[in-house]
Amino acid sequence: MSASEPSAAESEDAGHPGARGAGRTPLVAGNWKMYKTEAQAESYIQGLLPRLSSVERVDVAICVPFTDLRAMVDSTRGSRVEVFAQNMHEEAEGAFTGEISAPMLSEIDVYGVVLGHSERRALFGETDRALAQKVPAALAAGLTPILCVGETEEERDGGDTERKLRHQVHEDLAAVAPGDLQRVVIAYEPIWAIGTGRVATPEQAQEAIAFIRALLSDRSVAPAGDPEIAARVRILYGGSVKPENAQELLALPDVDGALVGGASLAPESFAAIVAAAEKALA
Ligand code: PEP
Prior knowledge:
282 residues, alpha/beta, 12 helices, 8 strands
């Protein structure tokens, strides 16, 4: 990844929260979920890399099953694609059958890890309490966490979106050391838009993401809360992003990229979303 963290020059550029002048390089991350054997992953990456050859200003990541990590790290070396896991345990080691730790991921050159995806929260009981430990554990191991937050349809309809986002941001980032906040990527994923084909309107996405950025500037909500740091944190939108809707979403001032599920499974559509992210910068 060419610029996952802002360079010194870019950091000096940091303006008000939401300003692209803050040097936030857009990130388009594909979340494969439980799809692709190692052989399928190899064939995918051979299809993807040539399609990204002209990409210059967008970071690209694939978030793959554990069994694909090592092969994808090897196959993407020297490219602009970084490899992320989809989960990890908060402890570095221990009697936790079936789990994987942050040092295990970083030792094999995995770049980062998705944490708090709504499927893990809803189907596997991932709690904000565990996430409060996972985020700093990932950072301590040198991994870039992509922390997912978002409201259910019921919460949105009940006017509870901001309360839910505030709660998740407050709890999940509570133990992040001052100075580390800008290494965290946040993905705003309204749960009602994940895998449903329903996409947030540009207004809904911009409003929620600007709200999250405002939370990050508030010292009582985010550790090291500070407008300058908040302006450097990348916040992605996720939820039914497709080549057809990507450019409009990614052109929004506070939206720094996308976490893409279904449309990341084919190299053609994923590369088209990366291309849309580059166009949105124009
Ligand atoms: C996701 O899995 O994080 C996601 C956003 O999925 P989809 O793009 O399929 O809605």
